[in-house]
Amino acid sequence: MDLQVLDFPGGKVAFTSKMQFISETSEKRVPCYRVLDDYGQQIEYDCSAQVNEELAVKMYTDMVTLQIMDAIFYEAQRQGRISFYLTSMGEEAINIASAAALTNDDIVLPQYREQGVLLWRGFTVQEFANQCFGNKVDYGKGRQMPIHYGSNKHNYFTVSSPIGTQLPQAVGAAYSLKMDKKSACVAAYFGDGGTSEGDFHAGLNFAAVMEAPVIFFCRNNGWAISTHTREQFRSDGIVVRGQAYGIRSIRVDGNDALAVYSAVREAREMAIKDQRPILIEALTYRVGHHSTSDDSTKYRSMDEIEYWKMSRNPVNRFRKWVERNMWWDDKREVELRNDIRNQVLRAIQTAEKCEKPPLSDLFRDVYDTLPSNLHEQESQLRETIKSYPKDYPLDVPV
Amino acid sequence: MLSILRRRAAAGGSDAVLLSERLRKSCAAAMMRFQGYTTAAKEMTVREALNSVLDEEMSADPRVFLMGEEVGEYQGAYKVSKGLLQKFGPERVVDTPITEAGFTGIGVGAAYYGLRPVVEFMTFNFAMQAIDHIINSAAKTNYMSAGNISVPIVFRGPNGAAAGVGAQHSHCYAAWYGSCPGLKVLVPYSSEDARGLLKAAIRDPDPVVFLENELMYGERFPVSAEALDSSFCLPIGKAKIEREGKDVTITAFSKMVGLSLEAAEILAKEGISAEVINLRSIRPLDRSTINASVRKTNRLVTVEEGFPQHGVGAEIGMSIVEDSFGYLDAPIERITGADVPMPYAANLERMALPQIEDIVRAAKRVCYRSVPMAATA
After folding, report:
1. Which residues lie closer than 8 Å to A207 by C-beta, 6 or more apart?
2. CB–CB of A90/A314 below 8 Å?
3. Are residues A168 and B204, on separate chains, in Cβ contact within 8 Å?
4. Is there a contact between B109 and A150 if contact means CB atoms under 8 Å apart?
5. Which of B144, B179, B291 to mutate to test the interface with A (most CBs of A within 10 A)?
């Protein structure tokens, strides 16, 4: 008999005299969970996919709002009205459906392509615009470049540019929830590229060891700026890494709103009840450029982009399902789109006209209380402005 | 004396009883006072001081917890967290896998949520693997989130040179962290410093980098009764004048304070009265105390272990130039470590670090006493 058992630190393990290397790939890739087919038809009756009319309509309208908001803000950058923007085009289902499956008590640590999650939770188009314009009512007090949203009341941690840093931070926040015995979890989002960061390894490993209630949600959209996933890693995507850390994982069709919704619902229950991390890999496609600083036609074909934009569009796919249930129609579609378009345009105009933050916001929040050296610097600056008014533009408030 | 009174009381009656009672009480009071003096003479190592602070602060505030490599079962790589796992359990004293980036990020995340983590680095050399989290996730976050997310975290561990541990275990990071807005940087020297400053750090709402020194852990210092009290706290941003003087100001921090005090003794014998300032805080730097001292002595020598370029001494020197230039009677001198990665061989290591003689010679130079320039082997 070949298989006998040995005792090592880490537990008992069977051993064999046949030398066999585990293949670098399995014969079949991990299958992808989906509920709706490409035409918005439910493939199988699945209770976990039960979404009622109210929820479905909110999900759909938010997906459309996200789409339109992204498009118009992008254009605003092109017109020079804001300095930067980053869209979530193609990932509307991921954004809205995952948010819909969480509660407002669950803490969200985003990367930067998850503005839809914040939208779902109630952040208004005006609030988004204020941050992008860095005006005086921006919750960020004009401290950050556009799309770096944050909102304590929506349990959405402020976006931070360095990639992957939110992953160990998510574990820390989840550990705190665990210590407080709260019935809530943390949802940390990241892209395929982010999984190459050391923080990904540290975050997942730690979460497993500490048994922290975190949902690690990977948006595998195929591209990290111009780096295709083939140049990012050689594993079968991200889902296979979960087991390497001892984390339960699933791969879902990220363009299927119902699949994303069900998977996150289930993941949340397991995370909280069992106090364990869960890894979800949502396969999708980044339809837009990485950001307004990128022109992706330089490294991928227009045909590829068009294909994903039209035939594999997650918003249209979900719309077909909603319409099939008689919960939506063309008339409401036209009304909604017009309504949102006007809302977004108005929000931009209002945000643009609004004053910039005052000078006093320059020195505050470096520390909890204003230290004397910064107080001095502020007085010196004010004196300089008074002495040389011609050097300081009148439209910047002091 | 009490026994005599008792015999008398037994003989006398009620008055005597009252008298003996009063005398007994005053004796007891005198003994208490005597005990008070004994308490003032109580000694504590820096290690014990730090341990006592962690113990007291964790007892007082359930949000405070300690995290790091070997802090639990092993009792701390330098035994600073001795006994804490046994007392508070694994939820409050967390042994981490080997990933500085990981546990620093986790600590920051916990602080974002509202806990008060104390993150221990085995040495600050290893904190380099976590510097993104220290600077980008901790230091800048209160500002970048417009006050929405505060980070009440303490990063602590040994900093600077030890003995014979080579370049990757001997780097001093005071100037690195000192340059970063959003951080507070503390550098204790004595046990009293360790107690007061670590308590202040843990209670502070901002991220604090707490630079200890491995060679100071075992050093014993007298600690006052006041410092032993659990509410004892030292203000952040205030330096301490360890020794008053009138001829030259010597600024130092951490281990170098000890060397500067010894240098001051030697200088005193040669008729130079040196004022030794223990910085205690690198950021905020106590510019007013330093400037006031230099305005009194008119001469300055800064002492630090770290590398010379962009060091703490450079910042202090510039502060004097900006605020007290007219008071200087001699150029400012800075004593620093050599501009090389720390060598291992004992003789080379000695030459790469400031020694007492270097400080003495520098003080003499700024006092325009004749003295050979270079160090001898």
Report:
1. A170, A171, A174, A214, A216, A245, A247, A277
2. yes
3. no
4. no
5. B144
Q: Kindly state whether residue B67 falls inside one of the protein's structural domains.
A: yes
Q: What is the predicted pLDDT for the residue at A392?
A: 81
Separation in Å, CA of A377 to nearest CA in chain B: 14
Of B303, B304, B297, which Cα lies nearest the Cα of B273? B297
Question: Is B210 part of any domain?
Answer: yes
Residues 6+ apart with CB under 8 A from A89: A67, A70, A71, A286, A287, A288, A309
* B228, B250, B276 - which closes a domain: B228
Is B353 domain-assigned? Answer: yes
- How far away is chain B from the Cα of A144, in angstroms, using its nearest Cα? 6
A139, A366, A368: residue with CB nearest B205: A368
Query: Same domain for B246 and B221?
Result: no
Domain boundary, last residue among B195, B228, B261: B228
3-state secondary structure (DSSP) of residue B146 = coil
Which is catalytic among the residues B48, B69, B100, B192? B100
What does the pLDDT read at residue B88? 97
* Per-residue pLDDT tens listing for chain B (377 residues): 334 334 444 444 445 444 445 544 544 444 444 444 444 569 999 999 999 999 999 999 999 999 999 999 999 999 999 999 999 999 999 999 889 999 999 999 999 999 999 999 999 999 999 999 999 999 999 999 999 999 999 999 999 999 988 899 999 999 999 999 999 999 999 999 999 999 999 999 999 999 999 999 999 999 999 999 999 999 999 999 999 999 999 999 999 999 999 999 999 999 999 999 999 999 999 999 999 999 999 999 999 999 999 999 999 999 999 999 999 999 999 999 999 999 988 889 999 999 999 999 999 999 998 766 555 44
CB contact under 8 A, B110 and A172: yes
The total domain count for chain B is 2
| The pLDDT value given to residue B37 | 40
Give the closest residue to B198 by CA, choosing from B231, B154, B159: B154
Do you find a cis peptide bond into B205, omega within 30 degrees of 0? no
- Which tokens hold the place of A27? 């014969």
Q: Which residue has the tokens 């390497």?
A: A244
Euclidean distance between CA atoms B81 and B101, whole angstroms? 21
Q: How far apart are CA A67 and CA A61, in angstroms?
A: 10
Q: Which ipTM value was assigned to this complex?
A: 0.78
Asked if B251 and B242 count as a contact pair (C-beta separation under 8 A), the reply is: no
Residue A300 CB neighbours (<10 A): 15
- Residues B219 and B337 reside in one and the same domain: no
pLDDT bin (cut points 50, 70, 90) of residue A72 is: very high
- Does residue B324 share a domain with residue B198? no
Task: Suggest the residue from A169, A180, A361 to mutate for an interface test with chain B (most B CBs closer than 10 A).
Answer: A169
Interface test with B, best of A197, A365, A370 (most B CBs within 10 A): A365
Cβ neighbours of A176 in B, within 8 Å: 109-110, 113-115
Rounded CA-CA distance B234/B226 in Å is 11
Contact B103 A206 (CB under 8 A): yes
Helix (H, G, I), strand (E, B) or coil at A97: helix
Q: What is the DSSP string of B253-282?
A: -THHHHHHHHHHHHHHHTT--EEEEE--EE
Domain limits at B118? Answer: 41-228
Does residue B261 share a domain with residue B223? no
CA-to-CA distance for B16 and A254, rounded, in angstroms?
95
Instruction: Note the pLDDT tens digit of each residue in A329-365.
Output: 999 999 999 999 999 999 999 999 999 898 888 899 9
